[in-house]
Specification:
Layout (H helix, E strand, L loop, with lengths): L1 H12 L21 H4 L15 H4 L11 E20 L19 E11 L4 E8 L3 E5 L12 E16 L4 E21 H5 L7 E24 L2 E8 L2 E12 L2 H9 L6 E9 L2 E9 L4 E10 L6 E6 L6 E4 L5 E11 L4 E10 L18 E11 L4 E12 L2 E6 L13 E20 L1
Length: 441
Amino acid sequence: MKHRITVTVPGLIVVGALFASSVQGAGFALMEHSAQGIGRSYAGSVAGIELESSIYYNPAGIAGATDPSVVAGSHLIMTSVDFDGGSTYAASGAPLTGGDGGEAGVNSVVPNLYMVTGISEDVAFGVGLFVPFGLATEYNAGWAGRYHALESSLHTVNLNPTLAWQINEKFSVGAGASAQYASATLSSAIDFGSISGVAPGLLDGEGSLEGDDWGYGYNAGIIYAATPDTSVGLSYRSKIKHTLEGDAEFTVPAPVLALAQSQNMFVNTTGTADLELPASATLGGLQKVNEKVSVMFDLAWTEWSSFDELRVQYDSAQPDSVTDESWKDTWRVSVGGEYAASEAWTVRMGAAFDESPIPDTEHRTPRIPDSDRYWLTAGLGYISSENFSFDVGYAHVFFEKSEVSLTSGTGDGTGDGTGDVLAGEYEGSVDVFSMQLRWRI
């Protein structure tokens, strides 16, 4: 009995809470950094089509700025995540009690704020505040997959000062530094009935973790304006490493409390977990067809393969938890267009394909119900005066149906190690409503 407790606890606590899907961008990346850009599915964002939000997409895009300007935006993300299936005990094959978890998606609001100003004729400075990664999922307490996941959340905030230099009429370069805060929360049920040998599912407890950390990185980019109507941009954003430090807490049923305490297991403790947020690179282009019509594209790569292992260290008797994730690098391609209906109004449309980094059904979990997705977007821009403009955008994201076949204590390690098997199918979709105000000071 002691052996079973010793080897199964670590997987419960952290894995998956730190790396669950945000269901907007690939993996758990967030794309919502510009209400203007969402209308085009963010196509052309690295080619200098926008000024202030280039701080995120390509810092070279702020080169040539003169008067100070500010952009404030907000994005309402409405997520739907539905599971159809169930879970069985490994030893007997009997089904676990509980439902399908209900609506696991959690609605959230993501802000962005940018400020840009010219320093000289050729040099500009800007600073951005945005949310590059995030997630929020929550299942009903008694659902069939409760030993894999109950609540998961990951929040990040990135402060990104930037400098850009317009070398000549054709070339601009830029670079920035990132100070990024990350915090994570996880909870899962624990099957103490199976662990103690009493009876599977009879004695449920719960484990949870909260942790946070600051990390640092950089971004850089270049824009080549071949003609006044044609430009190409290339940008790179570095990976950022976090070592999350926090508290692990357990709720242990009375019949097994003394046993857990005697082994210094399932006791409230502190711990650390490494979280590496991936590097990415994007190539994009902009072509003005005529005075009214422009078309653009983006091709983005994200180094999700750096998420190959998650190691959790505890300050109690529990050994390290080492989990094989084996994610793969992904690609995102987007196309979009703008139509200048008048001097004041601009209409935008776009589409995108976003590849999932999850390699197979065994690595898909309730915390990461991720799959390939397709974007359809639209937006409007309105210039109200010389100093003010307003943009709104909408996106609907379609998810491919995805299967999960996960044994507790394997795959991403989110279970309690008792061997119960979660099998079924996920469906999901996202609606994003964005708006922003630009003020030229």
